[in-house]
Amino acid sequence: ASELRKASTVFNKFVYGRFENDIFAVCMPYKEENIDLLINALQINLKRVNKDYNTKISCGVYIIRDDSLDVPEMYDRASLAAKSCKGKFMQSVAYYDDSMIENMRHEQFIINEVNRAIDEEQFEVYLQPKINLATDRSYGAEALVRWNHPDRGMISPGEFIPVYERNGIIGRLDQYMWRQVCKLLRRWIDEGKNPNPISVNVSRVNIYNPQLVKIFKKLITEYQIPAELLNLELTESAFMEDQDLIMKTMSSLHKLGFKIMMDDFGSGYSSLNVLKDMEVDYLKIDMKFLQNKEFNGKGEKVLTSVIRMAKWLHLPSIVEGVETVEQVDFLKCIGCEYAQGYYYAKPLRIEEYEAFLIREEEMGAKCSANENTVIINELWNTRSSISKFFDLLETPIAIYEYRRGKSELLRTNIRYETDIVFDKEVDQQEHYRRSEAEKALLSETFARIVRGDFSEALEYELTEDVRYRVTVKMIGKRADTMIMMVTFYEISAYR
Ligand code: C2E
Ligand code: CA
Ligand code: CA
Predict the structure, then answer these.
(1) pLDDT digits (tens, 9 = 90+) for 226-246
(2) Is the N or C terminus of the chain more exposed, i.e. has fewer CB atoms within 10 Å?
(3) Residue 283 C-alpha to ligand 3 middle, in angstroms?
């Protein structure tokens, strides 16, 4: 107040007052420079008054063009504008425009309608299939809410979810959705169908709801549903907040048999580190990685590393927002397990989803899965039987990825580690030299295979007295990426 009082001596027409708490109102002749001047002066002086606080001013401006408006209404408009710069660090002034009132009314409408909408079952469950990339068949779905308003038609979640999140109402809507999904699973079980898991979204309010575990337990008991059929999607950013609490909650949910997915991985301030502490069962990777325009850009590389890392942690990945066949092929090549997106299906009404499953069943009889992809995916899964078999083989084997002249070692078996890599006699540098030499040699062979021949053999000298015959076979291919299997036979004795 005293700072404003000081300012009032600078501007010759200046009416001011305190509205409530830390909110003040000023009426003065409009000039943009004057507003900046006033804000800057206040900002500097407030800092001087209390050095311990970083006080930030939010200022809303309503330029009086229509003086038939009541003063309180003018004040409301300025106040509405001020709210739009709350929480924005860089912005301290906002000017009122009519869309702000429209937005506020719309938001108010969305809030006011929620109870009736829930009671009248206006919220509908849509299901978007998740596809197992090894088989190209769907494996369960994600439940997404749609609001079918009697007067306004379909309202998209983007319009109402953020509003409900801000107001905490989302807690109630979530629980409504979970119940609808449980009912649906119950119906499918009763109809003798053997449903795959459906995942539901659990918003932040509910993750920190102390009743959460009880609520889920009650639901599956009431509907007599195996917990494995209801997967829970928890958004990545929630994992950063109260890690101890979330770990406790997850552990209770795991004990009940629920599977947990970390949703929107990579959309926020994700830390790869949380993955090692948080016992999630699946990683859902945000569609943002696929959305960059030139698809061969950095997003692709980051995605590759994220999925490989997830594999080391035995975490299957689901990539969201898959829209094109190129993306599908790419994901198969890097060993991603599941995909979800418009390429396969949009979120479907329940009847549409049921029809989708029937169609898939009919198609499935006609065409079988891409066997190579199956093998590659199995190889990645260190617990799969094919992977164990791979490790039991008495021949050193390495799996390489070859793409545009570049090779990268993806996987090796135990025999390769002991015979080819492990050599006490040589130091780090020599190891590096050898592996680079091997790579260079193989790259040439890979290039030959790409040009047309299907299988190649060459001889390879590890050291002066150890010689290998190496065969290379292409076991998987997508556009410009090939998966090569390299087998080593020692032939030193036959020289
Ligand atoms: P989400 O959980 O990340 O859900 C995925 C969103 O991506 C969905 O948007 C889905 O329709 C959309 N999507 C799927 N495939 C593609 C694709 O190929 N391309 C593009 N561009 N988009 C695709 P939707 O249904 O509009 O939902 C938006 C968000 O609203 C959801 O993001 C989720 O955070 C929230 N939401 C939706 N339903 C619920 C719910 O029942 N409860 C809670 N708490 N949140 C929900
Ligand atoms: Ca989700
Ligand atoms: Ca998501």
Answers:
(1) 999 999 999 988 888 888 999
(2) C
(3) 10
